[in-house]
Amino acid sequence: MKELIPYFLQFGYLEEDHINTILSNATTLHLSKNEHFSQSGKIHHKVAFIFEGILRVYYDNTREEITKYFVEENNLVLDIQSFDNKIPSDGNIQAITNCKLIVFSREDWQRLLVEVEGWDTIVNKLISHALLQKIERRSPLVSEDATTRYLKFMKIYPNVINKVPLSYIASYLGVTQSSLSRIRKNIK
């Protein structure tokens, strides 16, 4: 779990005893491929740091699943609206590869905010960083044609491209799987 600390230290300073307090409140969770970390309709009670693997955030449409984004190693993952407001989530977080997560319960996370000096600043910076990254990754894809979106996706998610089903990528890009197959064929 010590690998978590350099990630946190990018966003602020922590004393050694605070580091030990943080680590003592974390647990390790292994998710198998296709297993869910969070599901729609349930309240999200955990914050996780992805040590290994890739997760996807998706929503259930009446006809299909819509992939909103992917979360890779060395990033935090949580449904912030459900977590903060204790309301049922409207989305799902699913492992698309086998994953190893370092997890904090809501209670432990909240206690750390009170007990660890500077933790609140680090958490705010972590969340801001994650939101900015999400916007930066999504915004360029909105107004482009399908081929350009796919080429940008390859640059944004180089570690994801060969590890996830094409159907998830097609959903993320807003194209059909057959269209994505044609685009990939034309690029090669």
Provide a brief overview of the structure:
This protein has 188 residues and is an alpha+beta fold. It is built from eight helices and eight strands.
By DSSP (H or I, 4+ residues per run), the number of helices equals 8
Number of strands: 8
Overall structural class, as computed from helix and strand content, comes to alpha+beta
CATH overall fold name of the largest domain: Jelly Rolls
Rg is 18 Å
- Unreliably modeled segments: none
Largest sheet: 4 strands, antiparallel
Query: Which range does the strand content fall in?
Result: 15-25%
Order of helices and strands: HHEEEEEEHEEHHHHH
| Shape-level CATH architecture of the largest domain | Sandwich
Count of folded domains: 2
Q: Helix proportion of residues, in percent?
A: 40-55%
CATH superfamily label of the largest domain:
Jelly Rolls
Please report the first level of CATH classification, the CATH class of the largest domain: Mainly Beta
| Separation, N- and C-terminal Cα atoms | 41 Å
Lateral strand order in the biggest sheet: 1-8-3-6
Shape: elongated
Roughly what is the average pLDDT, rounded to an integer?
89
